[in-house]
Amino acid sequence: MNTKVFHQISYGLYVITTLDKNRPTGCVANSSMQITSSPATLALSMNHDNYTNQCIKESGYFAINILGENTDNTLIGTFGFKSGKDIDKFAGIDYDTKEGLPILKNTCGYIICKVIDKMETSTHTVFLGEVLDGDVLSEDNPMTYSYYHKVIKGRAPKNAPTYIPKEEPQTKETWVCSVCGYVYDQPEPFESLPDTWTCPVCGVPKSKFEKK
């Protein structure tokens, strides 16, 4: 099978937020879709290995925060490549609380759902959510998964439904972030970057980059 066919399916990029008991947590996801308009219901696919999966099951609620093209890349790094089990992802993050759930302020909008059903697959849980609330927060263009890969040059975490290992031939020396997969391809040589430089996607230091 040619797995590249999956790249032809349109995906968005979202931060899924929920509660870890009374503590806000969440992670990045790209597989969510509207199922019905009346009553409004959405489906969300979440890897079993994501701590957010467990928290959604326990709380029974989740919010979809729709990221825009002008989203701060470090937001993707924090929610996409770190675990809420180990850190407070909301430390220093600007957010509100709606229907008891954390809602990120600097996004295109949000949709809050109550879990009404779920389906288990071998690797993911598909949550069916009844929409409780939602609003548009900015006129920024929603970020697509294609935009994330082609413009921001980020890669999917291994827990993502769309993760496909890449084995591309290298035509020139490149430097790749060992945490999020960001490929540095700017005109300035990587070696000449100051030691204080950090990955624009996940924020790790220059020392976390590997030569390919």
UniProtKB/TrEMBL annotation:
<dbReference type="InterPro" id="IPR024935">
    <property type="entry name" value="Rubredoxin_dom"/>
</dbReference>
<keyword id="KW-0408">Iron</keyword>
<protein>
    <submittedName>
        <fullName>Flavin reductase</fullName>
    </submittedName>
</protein>
<dbReference type="InterPro" id="IPR018527">
    <property type="entry name" value="Rubredoxin_Fe_BS"/>
</dbReference>
<dbReference type="InterPro" id="IPR002563">
    <property type="entry name" value="Flavin_Rdtase-like_dom"/>
</dbReference>
<dbReference type="InterPro" id="IPR012349">
    <property type="entry name" value="Split_barrel_FMN-bd"/>
</dbReference>
<dbReference type="InterPro" id="IPR048574">
    <property type="entry name" value="RUBY_RBDX"/>
</dbReference>
<keyword id="KW-0479">Metal-binding</keyword>
<keyword id="KW-0249">Electron transport</keyword>
<dbReference type="Pfam" id="PF01613">
    <property type="entry name" value="Flavin_Reduct"/>
</dbReference>
<keyword id="KW-0560">Oxidoreductase</keyword>
<feature type="domain" description="Rubredoxin-like">
    <location>
        <begin position="172"/>
        <end position="212"/>
    </location>
</feature>
<dbReference type="InterPro" id="IPR024934">
    <property type="entry name" value="Rubredoxin-like_dom"/>
</dbReference>
<keyword id="KW-0813">Transport</keyword>
<dbReference type="Pfam" id="PF21349">
    <property type="entry name" value="RUBY_RBDX"/>
</dbReference>
<dbReference type="InterPro" id="IPR050268">
    <property type="entry name" value="NADH-dep_flavin_reductase"/>
</dbReference>
